[in-house]
Design brief:
Strand order of the largest sheet: 1-9-8-6-5-4-3-2
Largest sheet: 8 strands, parallel
Shape: globular
CATH class of the largest domain: Alpha Beta
Number of helices: 13
Strand content: 5-15%
CATH superfamily of the largest domain: Aldolase class I
Low-confidence stretches: none
Mean pLDDT: 89
Structural class: alpha/beta
Length: about 325
Amino acid sequence: MKWGIILNFPQLKIGHMTPNFPIIQGGMGVGISLSGLASAVANAGGIGIISGTGISLDELRYHIRKAKESLQGDGYIGVNVLFAMNDFADKMKMAIEEKVDFIISGAGISRDMYSWGKESGIPVISIVSSARLAKISERLGAAAIVVEGREAGGHLGTDRPLFDILPEVVAAVKVPVIAAGGIMTGEDLARAIRMGASGVQIGTRFVASNECDAPLSFKEKYVHAKKEDMVMVKTTVGLEGRAIRNHFTELISDDKKVKIKKCIDCLKDCSYRFCTMDSLITSMDGDCENGLVFAGARVDEINEILPVQTIIHNIMTEYKASNSNQAIS
């Protein structure tokens, strides 16, 4: 029996995927969402994502295979590839070769990615921040839509709150809609589903998990973050992103420049004010004062690092309680 029947939520179905819980783990680069986190979420009944951003083709192939080998029974693993990256097409084609369960993409829309997905029979999911882009994505062939509000961590495509945009997107498309950006609790999940979403995508909460591929110093930055530690930074991608204040965010404040040691020409469009990729790799390597540490708006609510299974169990317990309270009221 599916958990959806027990807990009274609609069964999330995207292509062949029918997870126990309507929870997709966010694909966070660089090096945050790899095989460790993705397989843990898949094994706990959600849907796992490996981020292809900032790793080589060989590394991506390795993590796809490792995640698949780590699956215990049925589980779903996808890959996040960003359209804004120069290696977008190569990584998408390689993910298709490795027969991932789905591909998810943001930071732009490519007509090709939907046709490649259709040819291979692999669902392609789009990350958008407006009903207009959701409709375009659906028309081009998106199997589902992730709608992301301003509460998300990392680069943001909107300054509007998730729950303002969500009903507009739900009304605009017929494919499943996944709510993302600031989702932390079972109450958030219940609210999203009441508004017509088929599930949620969670990134920030899963960073502070035992299985997340980020270094301990990165996870501890999340646990110790306070509301006043959050800062918006304009990166070389041309978008604002939410990060935890540190020495590096002070260096790049007020449009200041930081010398680029070696440009690897990773972005289709770059301001070259500093190296976004290098700053993310610095944090991934454990130096969380001299690199960017992206995080969601509600990171201050996290006070401990937990196993992925416990995080999902807590969310579903809160969801059940929220639904019960709603029924009583």
